[in-house]
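Sharing a chain and its predicted structure for anyone who wants a worked example. Both blocks are below, sequence first, C-alpha cells second.
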Amino acid sequence: MVIIEKIKQMQAHIIAERQKGKTIGFVPTMGYLHEGHVALLKRARQENDIVVLSIFVNPLQFGPNEDFDRYPRDFERDCEMAKQAGVDIVFYPSVDEMYPHEPSVTVKVHERVDVLCGKSRPGHFDGVATVVTKLFHIVMPHRAYFGMKDAQQVAVIDGLIRDFHFPIELIVVPTVREEDGLAKSSRNVYLSERERQEAPALYAALQKGKACIEAGERNVEKVRQAIVHHIEQHTSGVIDYVEMYSYPELKPIQTLQGNIIIALAVRFTNARLIDNIVMNVQ
C-alpha cells in the first residue's frame, strides 16, 4: 500500500495505472474509518484493479460553529484498516496542498440542498461538491463509492456527476449498521453510555414509519407523527427533523408515492445523528 500526499504525484501515479488499462475504484473519506467505510472499500476491491482511499478532513464543508478541529482523526489506525481492506493507494493531502490559496472557483449546488441537513447547514454541500470535484480530477476514477447513510450527499454527488459529465460510475452502498440497528458513524464515539443505548430507537422509528406505509398509510404527516412519537418516547435526544421527499430529487411530496426517502436527524448532548430509509411506494 502506497501513501501519497502530493497532488501531482497522485495524478502521475494514476495516469500510469490507467495507461496499463487498470480500472480505478475510489472511496473519498474524512478518515476515522469504521465498518461503513470498510464496506465501501471491500466493494471497490471486488470491482476494480486499483483501489484508492482518500483521507481529507475538508474545511470547506464545516460551518463556523461546527466541529472541524475536534473531528476525530487517527491516521495510523485508518492505514491499518485500509491495508486489511486491500487498499492500494491512500491519498492523504494537507489542507495547504488541497487549498494552497483562496479558491478562484468553487462549486455552488442549487438543487437537493435546501432540505434535510442542507437546510441548517448553508454552504455545506457547496464544500462537499467542491472537494469531490477536485478529488475526481486528482484521482480520475472509473467508479466512486459512497454510503447510503448520507443519502443527501449521495443525491448531490449524483447530480454533480450528471451535470458536469464526469466519466465516473457512482456506486451506492447500503448503510452499515451495528447489531442493534444504529447506523455506523464516526460521531457515535461522542454518545454517552445512556445515549448509545437510546440511539437504536432512531432506526426503529424509521422502521415504524415504513411499516405504516406498507400497511397502506399515504398521509405524510401521519407517518411523520408515528416516527416522532417513537423517538420522543424512547430517547432523550432533540429532533432536528423528520422529513419525507422524493428521492433522489429531494422534492416535497403531498402523498407517499414513488421512490421516497424517510430521513431524520436527532441531536444528543455531543453528537447529531442522521439516518434514513429509501423505499418505493406503489
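Comments welcome. The chain has a mean pLDDT of 96.
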